[in-house]
Amino acid sequence: MADITQTRVQATTRTTTRKRIRWDHIADHAILIAGALLMLVPVYMVFATSSWDPITIHREGMQFGFGDRLAENYDAALFEYGGFTDSVNGMTMLANSLILGLGFAIGKIIVGMMAAYAIVYFRLKFATLAFWMIFTTLLLPLEVRILPSYEVISWMNLGNTYTGLIVPLIASATATFFFRQFFRSVPEELIEAARIDGAGPVKFFIDILVPLSKTMIAAMFIIMFVFGWNQYLWPTLITTDESLFTLVRGIRQIVQSYADGSETPDYGQAAALAIIAMTPPVLIVVFFQSWFVKGLTESDK
Amino acid sequence: MAQVTLNKVRKVYPNGAEALEPSTFTIPDGELCVLVGPSGCGKSTMLRMVAGLEDVTEGEISIGDRVVNDIDPADRNIAMVFQNYALYPHMTVARNMGYGLKNRGMDKGQIAEKVREAAQMLNLTEFLDRKPSQLSGGQRQRVAMGRAIVREPDLFLFDEPLSNLDAKLRNQMRIEIRALQRRLGTTAMYVTHDQVEAMTMADRIIVLSNGHIEQIGTPAEIYSNPASTFVAAFMGAPPMNLLNAEAGQGRVTLPGGEIVPQAGVNGHAGAVTVGIRPEDVMPSPQGDLTFNVDIIEELGAQRLLHGQMAGQAFSVAVPKDQEAATGEMRLALKPGAVHLFDADEGRRLG
Amino acid sequence: MKRAAFGHIGFPILLLLPQLAIIAIFFYWPAAYAVESSFYLQDPFGFGETFVGFDNYTRLTNSTNYINALNFTVVFTLLVTFFSLGIALLLAVKADKVIRGAKTYRTLLMWVYAIAPPVAGLIGVMLFDQSRGTITQVLASFGYDFRLGVNYWDTAAAMITVSVWKQIPVNFIFFLSGLQAIPRSVREAAMIDNRSGTSRFWDITFPLLAPTGFFLLIINITYSLFDTFGIVDTIVKGEPGNNPLTLVYRVYVDGFRGGDLGGSSAQSVVLMILVLILTIVQFRFLERRIHYT
Ligand SMILES: Nc1ncnc2c1ncn2[C@@H]1O[C@H](COP(=O)(O)OP(=O)(O)O)[C@@H](O)[C@H]1O
Ligand SMILES: [Mg+2]
User: Fold this and answer.
1) Which candidate, A20, A132, A214, C43, has a CA 20 to 30 Å from the CA of A105?
2) What is the mean pLDDT of chain A?
C-alpha cells in the first residue's frame, strides 16, 4: 500500500516538473537571446555597412549583408587624410585617443593612489579635511562646470594641448576614493609587521601595498581607460586643432557631414570610423571582464 | 638577549580612554612572560607599546638597558607574531621570512642561509616557495614564527598567536612555541585571554583587568595565592567558587549558620568573600559543609557537580571513580583550600 | 587612518600635493567662478561685466527655452531610468537563473558599456535617419512617418531609445552582482518556504535587491542628466533648432553658442544644487544601510 502511493507520487511529480522546467528554461533563454540581439544587432549593422560603397548606403540605408569595400573603407578611414576632417587621418585620431585613454588612466591612478596612501597610512592632522576636499569633487561632474573650466584653461593657455585635454578630467576623485576604500580594507597588522621588519613609508608602498593592489589597479585602469577614451564634451571644447582630435571627437565631424547633406558623405567610411572608435575599449572590457566588473561594482559604492 | 622593564607606563588613547594605568614590572632575561586578562583589558595595548606600534603616554619602557620610548619599531630588535599572522600575501614563505633581514641590508646568501635554518627548525622546508594562501592555518602560524626567529631578536612579542587555530592544533603549537623559546633562550611577552595557555606556558604571569595589573607571579603562585577575587575567578578551570560570608569572633560564617573551617580571619570583621576551588573539596560524610547537587556534568576524567551551598552557586570537581548523585551531600576541605577576600574590593585578606 | 600609521609630515603632504593642486585649479576655481559669474552680466563684445544680482536666475524662470529643456529633462530622465532599469533587471534575473551559457550571456549583455555615447548616438542617427534609417523604413511599412530632427517627439523617442540601450549594460552588471551577492542559503530557505518562483522574486529577491536598485536609481538619474550629452549632441546633429534638449545641453548651447556666460553659469549653479540634493539623498540612504548591515 505504502509502496504504491509512493511510486504514484513520484511518477506525477516527475512528469509535471519535467514539463514546467522545460518551458521555463526556454522562456529564460529566449529573453536573454532577445537582449543579446538588442545589444548586438545595431553594432553588427554598422559593421556590415562599413563594407559597402557610399552610393548603395545612400540609396538603401544600413546593410545586413557584407559588401566588397571592407578593406578600402577601413584603409581610407585610417590612412586617408581629410575624410571627415580637413587635415588628419584615422591613425592620428587613434593615437590621440590612446594618449587620452592612457594618460587619463595612468595619471588618475598615480595621483589617486598617492593621495589615498597619504590619507590612510599617515598620521596627518588635516587628513580628514583633505579627504573631504577631495571627496566633494565626486559630487559635481565636469559637465556642470564646463564653461568656467573652459575659461580657466583658456586663461592658462592650455587650449589645444594634451595637458589641457587630460589634466582637468583627472580633477575628480573616483580613483582616490576607490583606493582609499581598498587600503582601508587591508589588515592593520600588515603595516605593523612591515614596520617591525624595518620598512619605511616608501618601502612599504612599493614592496607591499602596490603588489597587494595589483588587481585593484588593473580594474581601475580598465574603467579609467574606457572612460578617458570615450570622453566627448571636453575634447570637443578644448581641441579645435585637428591634429589633437580623438576618434570620439571625430564622430562629431561625421555627424556634421550628415547634417550638411550638401554632398553625399562617405557613409562606408563613417561606419568604419565608428567601428574603429569602439573596438579598443570593447575589446578591453570583454577580455578583462572579471577585473572590469570588479572595479565597476566596487568603485561606485 | 635582554630583560624588559616597564616603569610607570601609562596609555591614554587620543579619544581619552585610559587603556592602561601606570604599570611597573620587569621581565628577567630569557623568561616567557604571559599577559593574561579578558578581552579589552589592555593586553594588546601594553604589547604594542613595547613593540613601538603605539606611543607611550607616560613612563618609560626599556629593552636591555636601552630606553626605547622614542626608538622606531624596526630598531628595537624585536619580533612580533600577530593573531592573524600578518603574512605578506604576495610574497613566498621564504621572502616573507627574509623581508626584515633584507631591509637591514643583509646579503642574499646569508638571508637564504638563515631562512633555511629557521624553516628546518619549524618543518617548513618544503613550503618555502609557496604563497601564504597555499598553506594551512597551522603552517601559516609557523611561517609567522619563522619570520620572528630569523631576525634573532632580543625579544619575542606574541599577540594571541594561537587564537585562529582549532583546539587540537592550539595545544600542539603551545608546546612547540614553549619549547622553541626555551631552546633559543629569548625573552618573550605573550598575550592571551586563555588562562590555560597562560598557566601552561608562562614562567611568569601578569594578570590584567580593566587597564591595571591585578597580580604578577609564577603560575603556581597565581593559582595558590590569587591576589584578588578577579584573579581567583579568572585563573583556573572550573573557576574558584566565591561565597558571601560574615567574619567575626575569629571565624567565618556562611549565611545559614555553617562555619567555614580553616578560615583564619586575622582580626577582620564584617562581610568577606570566601573562595574555594572546586578541586579542593571532597565528598565526605563527616564533612563540615552542606552541598546540594542539582546537575552532574561528565567530563571523562572528572565529574563536575553543580549546585548550591548556603543558597549560593557552588561547584565541585570529583575524580571519575567517585560516585555522585543529585541531592544533599556533605563536603570536607583539603588543607589550604580556603581563600579569604575583602568583600568590597575583592583584595586577598592575610 | 591605520592605528600604526606613519608619523611623517612632509612626505604625505608631498603625496597629496598633485591631487590637491589639480582639484584646486580645475575643480574649486571653476566651480567658484561659475557661482560668481552667475551674478554678473557680460557685455557681448567682451567689455567688462555688471553685477546683476539674481537677474540671471530670474531670466531662467522666464525663458521658454529653459523651461522646455527642464520639462523635457524630467520626462527624459524618468523614461530612460525606468526602461533601462526595468529591462536590465529582467535580463539580470534571467542571466542569474540560467546555468548553461551564463558567462556568454553576461558578456553579450555588458560589452556595450564600452561604446562612447556619441558613437551610440551615431548608430542611432543611422537607424533613425529620416530617409534611409533602418527603423524609419520599418516604421514606414507600418504607415508611420518617422521624422528625426523635424518632429519633436520623434527626435525625443530616438534619444530615449539610444540612451536606454547604452545604459542597460551598467544596470545589468550591478543587478547581476547584487543578485549573486544574495547568499545561497537564503535562496534555498525561500525555495523551501515558497514554491512559486514569481512570488519568491517579489517577496525575497526584490527587497534584497532594493539597495542596489536605489543606488542604481541615483546613477541613472545622474547618467540621464549628464552623460547623455554625447547622445543628444549627435542625435540633434549639433543643431539645437527646435529639438528636445536636456539641461546640460542648454548650459553648453547658451554658454558656447550664445556667449551668455552669466546665464549659462546660473544654469550650472542650478544643476550643482540638483546634484547636491541627489547626493544628500543618496548619503542619507547609504547611512541607513550601513546601520542595518
Ligand atoms: N586605537 C584605539 N583608540 C581608542 N581606544 C582603543 C584603541 N585601541 C584599543 N582601545 C581601547 O583600549 C582598551 C584596551 O584594548 P586592547 O589593548 O586592544 O585590549 P585587549 O586586552 O583585548 O588586547 C579597549 O577598551 C579598547 O577599546
Ligand atoms: Mg588584543
Assistant:
1) A132
2) 86
Under the banding of pLDDT at 50, 70 and 90, the label for residue A21 is low
Which chain B residues touch C4 with a CB distance below 8 Å?
48, 53-54
CB contact C9 to B (< 8 Å): no
Please choose, from the candidates A56, A32, A50, the residue with its C-alpha nearest in 3D space to the C-alpha of residue A270. Answer: A50
Q: What is the ipTM of this complex?
A: 0.89
Residue C290: is its pLDDT beyond 60?
no
Is residue A266, in this structure, part of any structural domain at all?
yes
**CATH number for the domain harbouring residue A250:** 1.10.3720.10
Nearest-atom number in ligand 1 for the CA of B46 is 17
CB of B13 shorter than 6 A to ligand 1: yes
Query: What is the domain extent for residue A57?
Result: 2-71
Mean pLDDT in residue range A17-40: 82
Give the Cα separation of A281 and B37 in Å (integer): 58
**Which residues in chain B have their CB less than 8 angstroms from residue C3's CB?**
53-54
Mean pLDDT computed over A175-181: 90
The domain total for chain C is 1
| Residue ID of nearest Cα to ligand 1 atom 11 | B19
Residues across chain C: 293
CB contact under 8 A, B86 and A189: yes
Residue C192 in domain? yes
Would the pLDDT of A7 be above 50?
A: no
CB contacts, 8 Å: B52 with chain A: 195-196
DSSP output for C49-76: EEE-TTHHHHHHHH-HHHHHHHHHHHHH
Is the pLDDT confidence value at A277 over 70? Answer: yes
Give the closest residue to C37 by CA, choosing from C273, C255, C272, C265.
C265
Give me the sign of the Cα torsion angle A146, A148, A150, A153. Answer: negative
Distance B45 CA to ligand 1 centre (A): 6
For ligand 1, is residue B192 a contact (CB within 6 Å)? Answer: no
- The per-residue pLDDT for range A140-171, each reduced to its tens digit, is 788 888 888 898 899 999 989 999 999 999 98
On whether residue C37 sits in a domain, the answer given is no
Q: CA dihedral defined by B253, B255, B257, B259, rounded to 10 degrees?
A: -30
Do the domain assignments include residue C26?
Answer: no
Q: What does the CA dihedral B258, B288, B342, B210 come to, rounded to 10 degrees?
A: -120
Would you state the cell numbers that stand for residue B102, as one nine-digit string? 633584507
